[in-house]
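Why should sequence recovery work at all? Because a backbone constrains its sequence more than one might expect. Tight turns favour small or flexible residues, buried strands favour hydrophobic ones, and helices have their own preferences. The token representation captures these environments compactly. In the example below, the structure is given first.
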């Protein structure tokens, strides 16, 4: 299997750490570009095994750390740059995705079909995927895992009120026990770009196939978020995975050599969707 890691300067103003996996021999391979979620990164949980699954099926799988996600190219799985985390926003994440799509669609990876690009994202990354797919005709289809339906789905009203009052809030990372900042600029970005960052509106504008995947037992983002987006779309399919939580059975760290059973069901359904055309 081919595995490469590289650094791209992002249009958002910082560097993106990206890895590419695929078959050693490649001829017109379809591409999957994967976007991680809030407090996530490209190597979280079993994401490497997900990449291997698709690479073994003949895909080139591209995943990357959003440039302002709080990690660095030197520490790609640790939140060592919390100031960047606090200064992240959705517009910056869309610029990061655009940078990666430029690389993929520009033919920088040998042996891929640049007209067959699936954009896939988890949680807040799913919301990014919907927004980007609505505006970018380089995306052939979109897949979301446990997506949000509004950018503020992961922030309570009290958190938003505190941010407005103080100019910042701190969110506890339950795994690392870090208090992670979010600065007021995050909400200012939403206000200034209200039309273009409306996920429900974007969903109704997408004209390529979309697969919305959600666990029935999602404890972080209600499955009703995907159900709502499904109702907004004329070209979406809805896959509700019985018993799955927000991470489809994955956790960090993931030390097993196999995918969790729920994630296996998830990726197999995604493969079926992509191969259908």
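From this structural description, the recovered sequence reads:
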């Amino acid at each position: 299997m081919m595995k490469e890691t590289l650094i791209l300067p992002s249009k958002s103003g910082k560097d993106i750490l990206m890895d590419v996996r695929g078959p050693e021999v490649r001829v017109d391979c379809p591409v999957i570009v994967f976007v991680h979620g809030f407090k996530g990164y490209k190597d979280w949980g079993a994401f490497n095994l997900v990449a291997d699954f698709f690479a073994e099926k003949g895909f080139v799988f591209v995943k990357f750390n959003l440039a302002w996600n709080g990690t660095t190219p030197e520490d790609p799985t640790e939140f060592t740059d919390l100031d960047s985390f606090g200064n992240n926003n959705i517009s910056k994440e869309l610029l990061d995705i655009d940078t990666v799509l430029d690389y993929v669609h520009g033919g920088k990876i040998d042996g891929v079909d640049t007209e067959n690009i699936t954009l896939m994202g988890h949680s807040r990354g799913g919301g990014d995927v919907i927004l980007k797919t609505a505006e970018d005709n380089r995306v052939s289809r979109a897949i979301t895992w446990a997506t949000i339906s509004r950018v503020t789905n992961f922030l309570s009203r009290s958190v938003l009120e505190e941010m407005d009052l103080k100019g910042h809030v701190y969110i506890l990372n339950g795994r690392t026990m870090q208090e992670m900042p979010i600065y007021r600029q995050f909400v200012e970005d939403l206000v200034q770009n209200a039309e273009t960052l409306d996920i429900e509106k974007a969903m109704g504008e997408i004209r390529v196939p979309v697969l919305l995947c959600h666990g029935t037992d999602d404890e972080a983002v209600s499955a009703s978020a995907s159900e709502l987006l499904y109702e907004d779309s004329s070209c979406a399919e809805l896959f509700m995975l019985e018993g799955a939580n927000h991470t489809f059975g994955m956790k960090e760290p993931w030390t097993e050599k196999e995918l969790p059973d729920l994630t296996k069901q998830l990726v197999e359904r995604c493969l079926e969707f992509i191969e259908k055309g």
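A few observations help interpret the result. The chain has a mean pLDDT of 97.
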